[in-house]
Amino acid sequence: MRMPFSGWSRRRLANVLLAATLLIGLCSLAVFGARAGLHLMENRTIAALAAGRDLSAAEGASPRVLLARAHFLIIRDRLDEAQPLVDRIVRDGEAPLAVAALYDMANARLQLAISHLERTEIDPAIPQVRLAKAAYRAALVRAPGLWDAKYNLDVAMRLVRDFPQIEQEPQADAQETPKRLWTDLPGLPKGLP
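and the corresponding structure tokens:
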């Protein structure tokens, strides 16, 4: 009767298992090294953006790098360039990064709207306030306890009111849209009644 594992088979099996263990260990070490290198490159990019160097984010950049690039653009009033990055972070990133990006963008839009209002430029202020409110609401959906976003949303709500829209039946002979009776910004009307 033959034994299932003879002496030679056991040595061969032990060598194969040892080789497999070493191979798995080397692969794990390579993956760990690659991740550490990638993390180091991301940290360098984030530090350069924080220092004021204008670096673009690569196509497959991590949400952390995208957030740093978006913040770089936001503090330089380049909101139109930052908005696609914020959208990518919200779509692909983790909740805390998405909340930070939305809150940062909303603050910038609200600040821009307030600067328009200080110069009595009402028309460009209204869409900025609406975009800020939408970003605050999106941030609050992801982080309901974010008190600063609640407070800033309240400020934005006071700047531009959300009036309920009255649905009207379209008339067949009407070719123009009806003129709005009041502005969205609260305040005293100018001129005679």
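(Above: one complete record from the training split.) Residues 86 and 101 are 6 Å apart (CA to CA).
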